Amino acid sequence: LVPPLRLLVLLSPPPRPPLLRIFHKGHFQTAMGQLYDVTSMRDAENINAEIPQEVTKTYKDFTFPTWQRIVKFKTAFYTFHLPLAMGLIVCERTGIDAVNPALVEEAAMIMGEYFQAQDDFMDCFTPPEILGKIGTDIQDVKCSWLAVNFIACASEEQMTTFKANYGTEEGISAIKELYTATDMKGKFAAYEATMIANLEVVITKIEAESTLFATACREMWNKTHKRTK
What is the dihedral of CA 200, 206, 207, 208, to 10 degrees? Predict the structure, then answer.
């Protein structure tokens, strides 16, 4: 738990059934997210569990809503919503349970989406010596924030180059050049500003119900925002 909630856990024993239920739900949601992720590079209309499928050649399923569905289930629920919801459960006798669960989930989804977008961006643009690893989203044909936003604004000629190079080791530099040509860094900066503003609106609403829980949300956000790896 984040520090503002940690001490409150000592006030009373946590109710086990609700915790178990939320863990099971989080496990299921994350498994679904992993499924969405590993099948995103195949054309949805051709997916068949009995027949191996080639990697997409059309990228028609590489859309922003598809990416959002992946990150909501793969990242946002277990990374952000689970710890916040657990905080509400274990602190139910302190008055913090008055916080609207829908607001908590909304805040978690914003943080989770931004976290994954940030991860996708750093995978491409952050030097390995800073990131701590070599990015592989391009060669792994990931349905990433960069890929879906590039496709949304690319010209026909740029898409031809993208299709010829995405998913290959030798095409990494060509893809990065396409991202630079379409100002993906600028688009990410605009997206980041929007997400920050959206989250502030939600946390302000949470603050009206519980200053302590809002502080916990802000602390979680501060560990995410502007990270470098």
Answer: 120
